[in-house]
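Board notes (copied after class):
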Amino acid sequence: MTIVGTSIDADSSWATRGACVSMDPDHFFVQGAEQNAVKAACTSCPVRTECLADALDNRVDYGVWGGMTERERRRLLRRNPDVTDWRAALMEASRQVVGAGVRSGA
């Protein structure tokens, strides 16, 4: 398949590598308890951090992105008003969690 002269297989953007790439996008715009089932699709996604960072950086108001609902993202944004690069912040937080697990013997 080709879009504007570029093969989708050659596209290196994070969105083309998501676990949800073959899913119906409407599934990510549900309410209530249905959101938990949708979030499960994000659990093992290889680009979860990039997806979440994009939603946070762009203040996406609706849907599940990177395993978080709009309510969870709003809470995170309110608690961290000074963050300007969410990808860097999420990567640093991940490194700290991994480092803490190594130090505690986990």
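Comment from the instructor: The beta strands are 2-3, 6-7. The radius of gyration is 16 Å.
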